[in-house]
Automatic annotation (TrEMBL):
Name this protein carries in UniProt: LSME1 protein
Record region (Disordered): 36-57
Membrane-crossing segments per the record: 64-89
Pfam family, one: DUF4577
Keywords: Membrane, Transmembrane, Transmembrane helix
């Protein structure tokens, strides 16, 4: 007669162990996913123990995760756009500086050509006179 009683007690212990593991995983998930305000509402839902309320808790958790993901994506996108705009302005400034240098160098080259022509004319005239 002791065998049937042992057989009944073992599956009950196994079921309790499963429930304990699932409860522990749920608690760990709550700590990692949702902020403190959401934690309070999830704890209240656990205390009531209804299946509809558990589904509402799951929806709240999913909304919290979705909202957090959305905010992080928005922040990263804003940072990338700001960086691209900064690079555009930086590139425009450098291009403007290079083009102004090229214009000034072009003017210098033109002046050097004029001086070279004047020197050549003077040398040609001095050769003619000799």
């Amino acid at each position: 007669m002791e065998r049937p009683s042992l057989e009944f007690s073992l599956p009950d212990t196994h079921q309790e162990g499963k429930l304990y593991v699932v409860d522990s995983l749920n608690n760990l998930n709550k700590l990692n996913v949702c902020p403190a305000e959401s934690q309070r509402s999830l704890d209240e839902e656990e205390n009531t123990g209804g299946t509809e309320e558990n589904m509402a808790g799951s929806n709240t958790r999913n909304q919290c995760l979705l909202f957090t993901t959305f905010i992080l994506t928005l922040a990263v996108t804003l940072a990338l756009v700001s960086f691209v705009i900064f690079l555009i302005f930086q590139t425009r400034n450098e291009v403007d500086q290079i083009s102004s240098r090229l214009l000034s160098e072009k003017k210098n080259i033109e002046q050097l050509k004029k001086l070279n022509n004047i020197i050549l004319k003077h040398l040609n005239q001095s050769r003619i006179m000799e």
